[in-house]
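I'm stuck. Protein, please.
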Amino acid sequence: MKPSSLEIEMALNEAQRLREQGHDAHHLAKVALHLEVRARLLEDVLAHAKLYLHSGEGALEHAQLVRAIERADSEQDPHDIKPW
């Protein structure tokens, strides 16, 4: 069953708290936070792929898609990287 947005937010807040307090003995919080970043990166790739296809495969949109894929490959947070 898919969690609600509120449940996701609450779980990520708790994961962050566990990591900050050093109570993540089984690394569940670390994994949850990592997977949340990966999901955002892959959602960014999907959004850029849709834009690229909708644009008629424009050069700018292609470059943006390639950049989003590179960020996902390197696991960088899309909010930490300046756009083109």
About this structure: The mean pLDDT is 90. The two ends are 38 Å apart (CA to CA). Residues 52 and 59 are 9 Å apart (CA to CA). Helices lie at 5-21, 28-54, 59-74.
